[in-house]
Design brief:
The protein has 26 helices and 7 strands. The protein is α+β, with helices and mostly antiparallel strands.
Length: 687
């Protein structure tokens, strides 16, 4: 079933933006090439420089233009070579030869490219540069692969892999793995090829090498395409395309379009295949990628044969054959002649088809002989390179043996010094540890002593609590029990007497409830610490709640609770701690205020805190008791003005809970005149 690209164009664009573009944006921030600042390089070249510097600058320009402007890359490469030879800069020669070879490979001039790669190999051996030697051999591998000689391509790729590992060059190793994967694909070993490509991809991602990453995605996609796993192939092709577009890499974009075209061709979606092949060809032609244009024309001609467009296939193949002859691409010429023969046969021109078949066979024999001669020359070069490398390795081995002996002498001297230093450090460490341990034991003893004192105080509180539970808590309950008995059995009790009894029972119940609540709150703090819950709440409402709860006790003593001077503000702290503290302070104020008195609650706001005051005009606190009143471990009480019994537990709980929210409790008191207690909440707790 054919896909009409125009019909689905909008969906394709939407899918591309959603899946691919985000990846491209991430990598677009990375540098496109190692030598980004090309205008600066040109300015440096214009200024008079030494041959060494000029050779470096020109070689960087050659590298930068190797894929985008092959002719410029070749020009700058030869300029760099001239300066390097003039200044006898031998260290740069292997790299310059490789850069010139890359520029020739881009335009399809494989024989010239191979000659420069061989020069790069020899130059690397002469200066004992394993990494440069590895790059030269890896480039030779790619030339053999492009010419269809996969056995030789594999040999050079594995040699390059070994050299890159020796020189610890991870980026170069990734290139070698990619070449090995290409060879494995030709041998139909797709899983092993993918394994090599994923390792290369991981290396390039760690090094953030933006040209290698999309190339790996496209190569991985090709392995899936060859296995006819079209969904996986499409996934990797479109990721590769997105990354190439983000990097503005014309060479990579053209290859990605070609891969996508091959995917559609494999699925017999001829319209889509033509569309993507043509997009690839336009980019290649614009950038003068002649070898890529030739390859794309060959694919388009094949596609026309499959689509039974024989006339179009014939026209494209004949033009491509002329270009293949100009580029001396024997493999492409060989394949194009068979395409032309098939096209002539399909339209009934059998005589012309026969002529191309004869030429195809002759070309096949000459191509075989040509490859054989190249193989022999390559083997000889490889053998010579190995001999030179072997000699260098032997010389290095002798030098290393001398160095090893010297290293052993230095090692034993250093070992004796190290042993002395270790013994000295051990003695110093032992002395330091001894005194530190002694100090720590003293500190631990002091902490233990303080804990013991605190436990003794807590035991005193515990004993007092048990006394309260057994006596003070039992008394109101017995009173309530007796009152209820009277209400039940005394039928002659007047209505006034019943009201008075009800009021007395209500007061007793309130006292018992207050005591129980304080006991429970104290127990919670001792068991698990009662975690703090910080929220925003209205302070005025919290004060009114506390007033409402204790209104019964105030009315029983005819005491007025005044809350007119309260600011309408919000607090951000634990509301339950504030309410509990207010209830306890208000309960104490009512307890120690005589009948007919007044209790006032007010607030003040300053820069540092929010202050809540509870003021009474009661009996006040004796001066001797004031000093120990706010001790959280002191538990004592004083009877109220109506002889109300207390425990002192409420004030202790209030101190404990306010400490949890960084609030403070203070008071002012004059005996027989009254007291004022203040809760101060720090302003930062209210943010």
């Amino acid at each position: 079933m054919k896909i009409h690209i125009c019909k689905y164009y909008n969906y394709f664009i939407l899918l591309f933006l959603l899946l691919i573009l985000p990846l491209g944006v991430i990598l677009k921030a990375q540098p496109v090439s190692t030598f980004e600042d090309i205008p600066t390089l040109r300015q440096l070249i214009i200024a008079p420089q030494s041959d060494s510097l000029a050779a470096q600058y020109y070689s960087q320009l050659a590298w930068h233009y190797r894929s985008t402007k092959a002719d410029s890359a070749y020009y700058y490469g030869t300029k760099a070579l001239g300066h390097a030879e003039a200044g006898s800069v031998l260290a740069l020669l292997p790299r310059i030869y490789s850069f010139i070879g890359l520029s020739r490979r881009t335009v399809g001039d494989y024989s010239t490219a191979a000659s420069y790669y061989l020069k790069a190999q020899d130059a690397a051996i002469n200066i004992n540069a394993p990494s440069e030697l590895a790059y030269a051999r890896n480039n030779l591998s790619s030339i053999y692969r492009l010419q269809g000689n996969y056995n030789r391509a594999a040999q050079y790729a594995y040699l390059a892999k070994r050299d890159f590992i020796i020189s610890k060059d991870s980026v170069g190793l990734a290139y070698a793995l990619k070449n090995i994967a290409h060879v494995l694909k030709k041998k139909n070993n797709y899983k092993k090829a993918r394994k090599e490509l994923f390792i290369a991809l991981d290396i390039w991602q760690k090094r953030k090498y933006v040209r290698g990453i999309p190339a790996s995605y496209n190569a991985i996609g090709e392995t899936y395409l060859l296995e006819k796993k079209y969904d996986s192939a499409s996934y990797y092709f479109y990721i590769g395309l997105g990354l190439d577009e983000a990097n503005n890499d014309a060479y990579g974009i053209a290859n990605a379009y070609k891969y996508i075209g091959a995917l559609h061709q494999e699925k017999a979606n001829f319209d889509s295949a033509f569309y993507f092949y043509q997009k690839a060809r336009d980019i290649e032609a614009e950038n003068n990628f002649r070898a890529l244009v030739l390859n794309t024309d060959l694919q388009i001609a094949k596609l026309h044969i499959e689509a039974k467009n024989y006339e179009q296939a014939l026209d494209i193949a004949q033009e491509a054959l002329k270009e293949a002859k100009a580029l001396q691409s024997h493999e492409a010429m060989h394949e194009l002649r068979m395409i032309i023969a098939n096209a002539y046969a399909a339209i009934g021109q059998y005589q012309k088809a026969y002529q191309y078949v004869i030429t195809y066979k002759k070309e096949g024999d000459s191509l075989y002989n040509h490859n054989l001669e190249q193989n022999i020359n390559a083997i000889e070069k490889l053998y010579e390179s190995e001999l030179k490398m072997q000699k260098l390795l032997e010389d290095n081995k002798k030098d290393n043996q001398k160095l090893d002996y010297q290293k052993q002498e230095i090692f034993y001297k250093n070992l004796l010094i190290l042993i002395f230093v270790i013994v000295l450090l051990f003695l110093i460490g032992f002395i330091f540890f001894y005194f530190k341990t002694l100090k720590r034991l003293k500190a631990a003893y002091q902490v233990q002593k303080e804990q013991k004192q605190e436990l003794e105080k807590l035991n005193q509180i515990k004993d007092k609590l048990f006394s309260l539970i057994s006596h003070d808590l039992r008394a109101p309950f017995n009173s309530i029990k007796g009152g209820l008995f009277l209400l039940k059995d005394d039928k002659n009790m007047s209505l006034k007497e019943r009201d008075q009894l009800y009021e007395l029972l209500w007061i007793r119940i309130g006292h018992a409830d207050e005591l129980l609540n304080n006991l429970l709150n104290w127990a919670r703090t001792q068991i698990e610490g009662n975690p703090v819950d910080l929220v925003s709440f209205n302070l005025k409402e919290a004060i009114e709640d506390a007033k409402h709860i204790l209104l019964y006790a105030a009315e029983a003593k005819n005491i007025t609770i005044n809350t007119d001077n309260i600011d309408n503000i919000n607090l951000h702290t634990d509301p339950e701690i504030i309410r509990l503290s207010l209830r306890n302070l208000l309960s104490n104020a009512i307890k120690f205020t005589p009948p007919g008195g007044e209790v006032s609650i007010f607030t003040t706001v300053s820069d540092n805190s929010i202050r809540i005051g509870v003021k009474d005009n009661g009996i006040g606190i004796p001066e001797g008791k004031q000093k120990r009143l706010l001790d959280a471990l002191t538990l004592e009480s004083t009877p109220g003005t109506n002889n109300e019994k207390g425990t002192g537990l409420g004030l202790m709980i209030t101190l404990t809970f306010l400490h949890k929210i960084n609030a403070k409790l203070a008071f002012e008191s004059t005996e027989n005149k009254g007291s004022t207690f203040y809760i101060s909440v720090p302003m930062q707790a209210n943010k």
